[in-house]
């Protein structure tokens, strides 16, 4: 007899620096999602973010319908609001994109809370527990080493081999709102002078491996300098501006003001 081959599932991965190859030289081709055999997921990953990053302009991450979405944000749950952000993100994926199977990879990094597990339980998502003993960590004590990535891949393959249907209809699906997002510092609507340079500010790359990935950001070269951005108005009620920032070796305190 001839057995019918199982269709390879279409998978979306949304993750932080672990998915971006943290612990294996920041090389995504060595990360756990590259070790899934026939499954070739669409990977959307960015270092040093929390789940709220994917809550803004979510459509840019979702190219088509998927059989499953995998969240790899356990090491990024460092904010007190992270659990709520992950809950909202899972619900948004179900509401807007009708994802029937949601898996939450529970690699904790240095975050020793149960926020990832609680978010999965609250939304009916599948928690994918992965080994994370000392021998599986990189020397930075945050990311998995090569063996750690391999162990994550083993558990994810097992999950994807099972029935991919844990559909839970959210109780409330909020209406979509218009958004404009600038996920990269190079794209931000920064006001520049005639030479194309902002006054007293400079663009820096804080990545330890810029040949593989960049961590661009704006930093002031003069204390007290203003970095001016012109934000487009989406509707008659004005605009809501959310600004994400990271502490870096060049950073310091700053103040945000808005002028209409």
Task: Give me some keywords for this one.
alpha/beta, globular, two-stranded antiparallel sheet, 260 residues
Please provide a written account of the structure:
The protein is 16% helix and 13% strand. With 260 residues, the protein is α/β, with parallel strands linked by helices. Helix 2 links the parallel strand 4 and strand 5 (126-129). The longest helix has 16 residues, at 82-97.
The coarse silhouette is: globular
User: What portion of residues belong to β-strands?
Assistant: 5-15%
Q: Strand pairing plus helix content: what structural class?
A: alpha/beta
How helical, in percent, are the residues?
Answer: 10-25%
Work out the number of β strands.
Answer: 7
In whole angstroms, the N-to-C terminal distance is 73 Å
Largest β sheet strand count, sense and barrel closure: 5 strands, parallel
Give average pLDDT, whole number: 87
Order of helices and strands: EEEHEHEHEE
Spatial order of strands in the largest sheet: 2-1-3-4-5
Count every helix, treating DSSP H or I runs of 4 or more residues as helices: 3
Would you summarize the structure shown here?
The protein is of the alpha/beta class.
What order do the helices and strands come in, and which of them pair?
Elements: E1 11-15, E2 42-45, E3 68-72, H1 82-97, E4 102-106, H2 115-123, E5 126-129, H3 146-161, E6 201-205, E7 216-220
Parallel strand pairs: 1-2, 1-3, 3-4, 4-5
Antiparallel strand pairs: 6-7
């Amino acid at each position: 007899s001839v057995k019918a081959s199982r269709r390879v599932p279409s998978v979306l991965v949304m993750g932080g620096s672990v998915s971006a190859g943290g612990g294996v030289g920041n090389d995504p081709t060595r990360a756990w999602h590259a070790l899934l055999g026939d499954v070739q997921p669409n990977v959307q990953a960015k270092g040093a973010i929390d789940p709220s990053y994917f809550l803004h302009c979510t459509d840019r991450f979702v190219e088509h319908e998927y059989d499953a979405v995998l969240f790899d944000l356990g090491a990024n749950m460092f904010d007190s609001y992270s659990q709520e952000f992950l809950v909202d993100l899972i619900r948004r994926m179900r509401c807007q994109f009708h994802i029937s199977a949601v898996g939450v990879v529970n690699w904790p990094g240095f975050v020793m809370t149960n926020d990832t597990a609680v978010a999965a339980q609250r939304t009916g998502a599948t928690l994918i527990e992965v080994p994370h003993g000392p021998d599986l960590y990189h020397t930075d004590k945050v990311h998995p080493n090569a063996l750690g990535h391999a162990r994550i891949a083993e558990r994810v393959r097992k999950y994807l081999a099972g029935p991919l249907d844990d559909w839970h209809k959210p109780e409330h699906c909020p209406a979509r709102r218009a958004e404009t997002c600038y996920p990269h510092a190079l794209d931000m609507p920064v006001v520049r002078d005639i030479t194309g340079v902002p006054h007293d500010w400079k663009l820096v790359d804080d990545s330890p491996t810029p040949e593989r990935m960049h961590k661009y950001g704006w930093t002031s070269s003069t204390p007290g300098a203003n970095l001016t951005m012109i934000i487009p108005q989406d509707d008659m009620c004005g605009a809501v501006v959310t600004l994400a920032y990271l502490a870096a070796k060049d950073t310091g305190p700053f103040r945000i003001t808005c002028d209409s």
